[in-house]
Amino acid sequence: MKTLLVPVLLATFVTGAAAQQLQQSPVTATLVDGWQRSDGTYMAAVALELEPGWKTYWRAPGDAGIPPQFDWKGSRNLHAVSVSWPTPKVFDQNGMRSIGYDGKVVLPIAMTPRSGGRDIDVDLTMDIGVCHDICIPERIKLKGTLSAAGTTPVPAIAAALAERPYTASEAGAGAVTCRIEPIKDGLSISADLQVPYAGGSEVVVIEAGRPDLWVSEATTQRSGNTLSAQADIVPSGNGTLALDRSAIRFTVLGASHAVDMRGCTPG
After folding, report:
1. What number of other Cβ atoms are within 10 A of residue 256's Cβ?
2. Rounded distance, CA 15 to CA 5, Å?
3. pLDDT tens track of the chain, all 267 residues?
4. Strands 120-131 vs 55-57: parallel, antiparallel or unpaired
5. Which positions ≥6 away from 161 have C-beta within 8 Å?
């Protein structure tokens, strides 16, 4: 198994005063080789390290964030990719809520090769947002070869996998029911999550299961083991607005832990 410490090429898209303030990139990245799992997939990771005071964003970044984008074109012997997300933090950003990471974060990546038993040549372009007093997009380019040998988990990647939110069954949660109603510019979703208290001021993030749908910051209210959340869902274009209830995703972020719940039934 090869250990990859791949240099990162960063391009910062700022101009004028912001460009003068930012002399160098606030984030560095490395591609970390991992191990081969019993199902033939390879585990690897992208490790991001941010300068003090800077943060970057989770897959659903909130109204004040920039969603990360991954482009794997140019990679060889790569059939499919799945990114795992450690539990993020909730930030207040100029009165708006954003969700992401500060310090150092390791994003585990499961890669399915086209041909088993052969190396995967990774060519990744990753567009992320980073924020301090200013918010800027960063373009990260990573290249490296993931070895087909080795089955021993790498501690840094295994630790990041362990930091994911609990599944509904792990958290002792029950069903999610939801009511979906039309509004002027989209849909309103009201959901009741049967889930034990996660600690502190709980935040519920709702993802519609379609990248072309914007979901507003959810309002929440708890009564016993029922956590209620309401949000609006608005399309980015003029296409037909249809929701697959099974694809809707609810993430409860609490002070003690987080819970990932999938799908909802009419209620």
Report:
1. 8
2. 30
3. 333 333 333 333 333 333 334 458 999 999 999 999 999 999 999 999 999 999 999 999 988 788 999 999 999 999 999 999 999 999 987 778 899 999 999 999 999 999 998 999 999 999 999 999 888 999 999 999 998 778 999 999 999 999 999 999 999 999 999 999 999 989 999 999 999 999 999 999 999 999 889 999 999 999 999 999 999 999 987 666 889 999 999 999 999 999 999 999 998
4. antiparallel
5. 84, 108
Give the integer Cα–Cα distance in Å for 107 and 87.
11
Token pair of 263 as six digits:
């799908």
**Spatial contact of 250 and 175, defined as CB atoms under 8 Å apart:** no
Instruction: Name the burial class of residue 32, with classes exposed (0-12), middle (13-18) and buried (19+) by CB atoms within 10 angstroms of its CB.
Output: buried
- How far is it, in rounded angstroms, from Cα 172 to Cα 166? 9
Q: Which two tokens stand for residue 161?
A: 């996998």
CA–CA gap between residue 176 and residue 194 (Å, rounded):
6
- CB-count exposure of residue 143 (10 Å: 0-12, 13-18, 19+): middle
- pTM beyond cutoff 0.70: yes
Residue from 28, 22, 107, 63 nearest 217 by CA: 63
* Alpha-carbon gap, residue 123 to 132, rounded angstroms: 29
Question: Residue 210: which of 173, 250, 249 has the closest Cα?
Answer: 249
